[in-house]
Design goal:
- With about 130 residues, the protein is mainly alpha-helical.
- Helices cover about 60% and strands about 0% of the residues.
Length: about 130
């Protein structure tokens, strides 16, 4: 992980790994504040932080719907860049596919809970990367 520290793939890796902290920290902050998590939302499958009672569309959520998954994507691809190869690429690709599937399942849950407000939010925000995806 520390060989050739100034090579392009190492610099890209450190940028992605360090960058993964940004959506994580901002997403957690916004979920705790604006999301108003409550145990009253009785879905046993959700963790405490996921039991939001208000749709969060401010902060980082103004641009992307899944900042915590974005963080994991950056982490996976940052690890790939540390030692690029077929195995690492397959693992990062699998992680990306599974995060996409998880995000879609979560969006179905959010549509069921928040209804049309979430559909409208989906129309004006991106899934993982602002202005791109």
């Amino acid at each position: 992980w520390f060989r050739a520290p100034c090579s392009r793939h190492q610099l890209a890796s450190w940028a992605l790994l360090t960058g993964s902290l940004v959506p994580l920290v901002l997403g957690l902050r916004d979920l705790r504040g604006a999301g108003r998590p409550s145990a009253a939302r009785g879905d046993a499958a959700l963790l405490g932080l996921e039991k939001t009672t208000a749709l969060v569309t401010t902060g980082i959520f103004r641009y992307i719907r899944h900042p915590l998954y974005s963080s994991l994507l950056l982490l996976a691809w940052g690890a790939f860049c540390k030692a690029p190869g077929w195995v690492a690429g397959a693992l990062a690709g699998a992680a990306s596919g599974l995060l996409l599937a998880t995000a879609r399942a979560e969006e179905a849950e959010n549509i069921a809970y928040f209804g049309e407000a979430y559909r409208a939010y989906m129309a004006c925000s991106r899934m993982f990367i602002p202005f791109v995806l």
